[in-house]
Amino acid sequence: xxxxxxxxxxxxxxxxxxxxxxxxxxxxxxxLVVDRGGFRLDIxxxxxxxxxxxxxxxxxxxxxxxxxxxxxxxxxxxxxxRLDGAALDRTPPESRPVGVVFQDYLLFPHLSALDNVAxxxxxxxxxxxxxxxxxxxxxxxxxxxxxADARPRRLSGGQAQRVALARALATRPRLLLLxxxxxxxxxxxxxxxxxxxxxxxxxxxxxAVLVTHDxxxxxxxxxxxxxxxxxxxxxxxxxxxxxxxxxxxxxARLVGLNLYRGRADGHTVRLDAGPSIxxxxxxxxxxxxxxxxxxxxxxxxxxxxxxxxxLWHCEVAGLETHGDQIRADLTGELPxxxxxxxxxxxxxxxxxxxxxxxxxxxTQTHAYPA
Length: 370
Description:
The structure is a single chain. By secondary structure, the chain is an alpha+beta fold. It has two domains: 150 residues, P-loop containing nucleotide triphosphate hydrolases (Rossmann fold); 114 residues, CATH 2.40.50.100. It has nine helices and 18 strands. A six-stranded mixed sheet has the order 6-7-8-3-9-10, sandwiched between helices.
């Protein structure tokens, strides 16, 4: 569920002993408060040099607003923004040591790939010759040396993304912002470009902040996830922590788990809304309980002698293809999602309205403190 990322890069200033929350330390230290009409963003965001942080959340959560605030394109109405100890709150966008890769790349259509990349160094005072020399080196690093003279309309989506990344990195930013950098790519190209982007981010020695709503992009590319809903941080941690311990319905759906909240008394969890669930963990007090849709077994009739400790009477609310399986959305005693093969769905005669019995073994649940 959580693809492996490269190990610590010896070229990076490592995290131990470096606290980005201290204003005299390198890295990002921000509290972003933006009031805009009926929407309020209020999130704390810190990152050490060499760290890739992904802002993850549903549409309208405030991710892009946060990114624009970091870039200086959205003024703060409160909070603070410090980068490597320097306050950036009042620094205009063009003067910030920040590189941005936009969702649609925003390459200059009248310039070649080389001159697109050279644009940044030129703006920072480099001569035309030096800027083009730097740009050529960056295109070579991106595997695009043969496309230096091509204009954006002649580039594929993956090539345009790499040119945009090279243009952002050519200014040697201390903060790299990526706004849905893979969203414009088709599925096949996305796979290849994601792998390349992961390599480039592993080599980046400053702070990188990635905005995405795609959990795979976030888990492959980021060291740490910050999940934002309704303008607030609802959970943050490593990709593995987030996947194993979701704390909201949105995160649970994102990582493919059924999630419930209740109160534990030993191995029994009485849900806030619904029946009890038996677990292998022995806990006390408020807890979450999670299990994957693949842990659910469905029966047309109440099973006799089933070993599962958890058994609920449900009704099929909907069916959809999910990879090579069928995902059943169930309502009833316990609303849940169940995955089963096409053959099993046909044998059970499943369709909306079909009554079923759902079972989950205690060993396939996971309970943890709320």
